[in-house]
Amino acid sequence: MADMDPGNERPKGFLLFDGSFESGNLGQVTRVNALEWDVSIRADTLNPRFRVWYHFSVSNMLAGQKALINVTNFSKTKSLYRDGMTPVVRSTSRPKWERLPDKHVYYYRSPRHDGAYVLSVALAFDRAETYHFAYCYPYTYGALQQLLQQLDSLNLPFYRRDCLCRTLQHRRLDVLTISSAENLAHLDSLGECGGPREVCAHAPGGRRLPVIFVSARVHPGETPSSFMMHGLIAWALSADPSAVRLRSLCALKLVPMVNADGVALGNYRSSSLGVDLNRHWQSPSEWASPTIYALKQLMGRYARADALKVSLCVDLHAHSTVTSGFLFCNAGDDPDGFEREAAFPRALGSACRDFSFASSKFCADPAKAGTGRRALSDMLGGACCYTLEVSFFASADGGKLAPYTQRDFCTLGARIGVALHDYNLQQQQVTSSAGPGHSFLGARCPNWACLAVAAGADAQRAGEAANGADARTGACRRKEGAAAPGHRPPGSQRGAAVLGAPGARVAAAAPVLGCRVAGGAWSASSSNAAIWASVGGEPPAERRRRAVRAASTTAAPLAAAVTPSACRFGWAGAKTGTLPVAGDGLASVALEPHVRMLGRPLGAERERGGALGPPLGNASADAHGEAAGPAAGVARSRSHSAHAPRPRHSVSTTPSVS
User: Which residues are responsible for catalysis (predicted)?
Assistant: First the structure.
């Protein structure tokens, strides 16, 4: 928009607001007085429940003019604004998006607005030009198409772009396939694998080719997911050795924008029909939810193909109230199921400091049955399905909030790619390992077990039991008679398995609380507690009731000495929240030893210039090359904001292409 719209008669200084552009969102605008304006958010199309995303422009001001803009009608009161988040801004002459300084942004209950929460921004426009304000960094459908057209022109032998279907408003649902040229040729040979059980030639080497699906923007206002997808695409197409290896190990199916109509309309959560597409995966309508329907059909065809194996599905999201990254995971029905579900969160926590296994949420909430994570897990059987959430605003680094930039979100996407590589490499090692008990770390160690903690156990007896473990391999061995005092294993099985310790001698009466994994070996510190692994099945109901009572005395000391991430109070094989009992007076707890993962350092990564640039032209500006951005111009900020981004080590989002 020009500084002065030729079609209006408003004098200079009378602010003009506009939201009629791609991804724009602007409701009613009310002039309170000469300096103050109330702005409302337009609700999602055909759905009045969601009013969070906003994106509008302001023009026709005088240079040096001051204004107070109030955003008045948020549908969610709990917000990252309480933690210091601020809107992002850019202007005509300074097209790079920046966050406003927090000292000029206020989030509070306003008496003038009937006690509703209001976001007020105090501005001083230093130049007479058009300014854009948004809830978070925009990433539009047009920007995505520009990126994909650029990729098409490269004619890469390991990249393919397909239009799976059209949205209700005739936009493309693009599916990108990234894999080695050999794997792509194999996929092409399969054609449309349909029918109850399609029999096709297997992948090179006679193996089933693993397929990984990663999707983004099912919720259109969650723009960080697009930047993460952008970073993942850039990394997966790069010459990074891990990316090259991942392309040979599996086929990546990337869906950059599931809800393109909602993105273009400026919705926060809904499609053009007002539907939350992430609640319709169980029974999607071909008419009302064509993108979900088409994706589910595609995954179903791949699942029925003998030559393919859908191994992993990750749906990228952004969260409006947290300052950390985490995963929603499906709750495993048994110990092996938990280990399988926990493998990727661990790999991600190792590859990226913004995520931790401790933050993962294993959820079986019936209200989430329609999400992609739940519905696809039920349909695909052995596939592990996740919802990945990242904060709209910042990560907590050493207790201090470090606001994300566009480049930071792209870097997260690249680190997700590294985690996918590590996960697939670990799965290959697990598949090729001899015998059970091989963990994702590539070293033999006990699977998730029900551990009975016997406080005050006889140290000598515990030491004798520990000596029965195989110190060379760390494999769990059943040893008749090596039971704690009073221990009666449940069920028909007898005896107890003791956790072994390769590379480290298990001290007498080694406790659960001392277990650590370091360099692939188990180690333990001595204390007055013994470790016992139950080999029995789920106890009868009366023992479960007794376990709940005993847990009140067992859980307290455990929780005091073990981080919440290391201790799971509950039986992995039952969703009742009860605990099995190993014997009289002993409460068993399902405990996962805290894992110290030695992942790749985030530093010392080499920036490489190349064909893939940032998604928007304004994002290519050097983070340190612009002396005064629009945020400084409109707000006259102090030189150092309290929420200034920390220096970050990052993977290049503009890698060279192999």
Answer: 389 (proton donor/acceptor)
